[in-house]
Amino acid sequence: MPDEEQYPPTVEADEPTRKLGSKEGLPQSVPGFRLLQKLGAGGMGEVFEAEQLEPVRRKVALKLIKRGMESKEVLARFDSERQALALMSHPNIAQVYDAGVTEDGRPYFVMEFVHGVSVTEYCDTHRLDTSERLGLFLQICDGVQHAHQKGVIHRDLKPSNVLVTIRDDQPVPKIIDFGVAKATAQRLTERTVFTELGAIIGTPEYMSPEQAEMTGLDVDTRSDVYSLGVMLYELLSGAQPFDATELRRAGFDEIRRRIREEDPPRPSTRVTKMGDESGVVAKKRRTDPAFLARALRGDLDWITMKALEKDRTRRYGSPAELAADIGRHLRHVPVAAGPPSTIYRAQKFVRRHRLGVIAGSMVVVALVLGILGTTLGLLRAVRAERAARAQAETARQVSDFLEGLFEISDPNESKGNTITAREILDEGAARIRRELGGQLRVQARLMHTIGKVYNSLGLYEQSRSLLQESLSTRAELLDREDPEVLENMSSLANVLSHLGEYEASTDLHQRALAIREKTLGPDDLNVASSLHHLAAVQLQLGDYEQAETLYERALAIRERALGPEDPRTLDTMNSLATVYKVRADYDNAKAFYERVLDVRKRTLARDDPALATTLQHLASLLGTMGDYEGAQPLYERSLAIRERAFGPDHPRVADIVQDLAANHHELGDFAAARSLYERAVSIYESSLGPDHPDVAVTLGNLGVLLMDLSEHQSARPVFERALEIREKTLGPDHPDVAVVLENLGLLLRILGEYERAKPPLERAVAINRRAFDSEHPATAGSLNQLAIVFDLSGQPDAARPLFEEALTIREKHFGPDHPEVASSVMNLGYFLMRNGDLESARPLFERVVETREKVLGPEHPWLATVLDNLGALLTEVGEYEEARPLLERALAIQEKAFGDRHRAVAATLHNLAELDCRTGNYKEAEPLYRRALEIRQDQLGVDHPMAAETLEAYAELLRDTGREADARALEDRAANRQASTSDETSG
Q: Is residue 156 annotated as part of the catalytic site, yes or no?
């Protein structure tokens, strides 16, 4: 569950009214229209969102000339725009509806209201890839072509004048603002529009060279083609041909000179020279910088640069010609802009007729090889080749023998013999260094193999040492592009990721990926492997969009090359499902997990460990979705498979035991959870050693359970040991160390030791900021814990910015509706309630109710949590009728999810009893308090603060109803139970 904290529930008020826009400066009256808000303003006019009242009611955009702008030129330009729009009727051009004059004499015209954003913003926000961007651009070309056919040149085409709106779930670009349009076939207005000498008409970044001349006499439809070329350049590369900041810093004459004389770099070149920014640009196109540059190189470079020709006679003659060339590119036929060479046309022919060319090429290659073989001295080559093969075969046999010996320690192969295998492994590593110094290539290969096995055992430092040594040797012996070197780089990168060295891991994976793409092509299976591993690191770093993009690319390659049921394809599909799960896209995650499970059920033996893994992942997802009962049999089946495959004491068995314990923990079955956690610790210690990181993970979970059982003094040494293991094995600055520090801080906070809780939590924040960045979700979690301690220690001014920073981080990473965002909203709400700002707290709870119901469904336990607390809040402010259905609904959800003996059930029973007491329904309240008290005392202990809270409230009810003796008897029973428990503990 997210790190939601429910420290004392409180209250809040109505949601503040949201302003839709400014209404300042609205004209007093525009006949037949009601102005709603100002949308924007240009040089000559203001645009308002308005409602047309007759003859039809509809939302429109009303453009009104600015006050004081009634010059002859402005009036002419304003009328020109109105008439230009009136001439045209096209789905990609905003339509004009009406025109008139306001009561104070200001001309206006009414046009279609386009509710959208600029085309560049839409493409970047929705992460459209290159082909999708080209599809939108073709529609824009079609709209401009229509304008030209009507005799109108726009003269100010730019992204902000092309808004994308949604029609029937499809994006539709709409061209607006023909304020500087020019007529070619007819006069647009009786007023003549004169271009003022020295005044630029248009926007410099998108202006054609002939517009920059500013004579106004030599501008034709090809000027709009140039502007379209600038837009295309920006859509593809994420930058303009000329840097806008530098251009506008230049003087007037310098701006004109650059536009007329300087040639910008090709789009692909611009991408490669962006540095770190190229990663951001590529991410917005669902790819990476190297792949984007390759996609632009060739056709798209040529098309864009032809549209940007300084000499308009060499430019495309119309938007239709530009669109036609883009269409050719998308169909993989030669483009008009490309060099008409034989090689280029042959490449296009191959892409269209791949199978036929491959078949023909095989025949040609066979003939050529035959001729070469005879002319180069076949006999001498064969003798040399035989000698090389003999030497390689000897090395292979030695290597394979030793690999077979050592790989029995891999958890996937050893079937429970890990201890013996570890001993063999350590001895083997020493022998390789000792005995194979004269056979460096064989030595490097074996070091690589053993390094991977150490990694699989979680022995990361041993793995790193061998893999670094192996890579160093191979880099000296082999070419940097050799497959063995690249495989070694990838293996080392995986180990560095486990050690928390994410930057170094990313660098190695990216280097391997770039070389593989260059030497093998973008669709090679080794490329897919690099993409898959790089995605895993990005997932650790919290860059979920990039992880999703990389996994999607890897999946596409593996599905094409291997088919949808190959184990490697399924591995990537499974990983992609995990990304969906993290991003709360539960429907997609479940669909992918179930698809993998279906294939593995059909293709694997019933006891195959891979089947157990998929069952485990699907069970984890169901738990996240609140279906703990549904997760239980999946975990149990997964455990049974692994026990049969590996034996009962294997670390892979402990993995499932631990997950099953966590599920029991969520269900409130603390006894079963404790037994399972302890079993997992025992397995890990006996098989992997007492200082293995997996031991620390389970100890951390056990410590949290002990806190829930109020065994706080027992939890402390458990957390301290987990911290010691992680610092020893992973180093003091690993993010896994921060997890234990957060748990330790939580324990100290529960014990009321606020000042002692601050240092571990502050250290956790610092570790996460160093390991990831200041905006990683892990940083948000540690900020939240630290904020609570500051609040409880009487420092609300220090707490509030930490709560708000945590919320901002999560909203940026996950969007507004993610469960972790909802948790941060809840945290902030609790803080506000504790500090008396009930009015501000209420809309936060209401927001959480809305988002959790939408994302998690109407019966998720996390929804019940916020319903319970909102109900308690409403009770506190006296809104009893509104509070009751919320509390009753929360109780029903919790009883269905957890049964009737869960601590969450007790919390809601307590709040319902409080509501009944407030309304004088003491008879109904008494059994609710009694039941809540029984659950809390049994589940949490007699001396737990929550049990004491319910005891005090129940006793007060008894006294208020004149039953003093019953109240004293209740308190005496509790005291006796507490004393008995203390005696048992001390004994």
A: yes
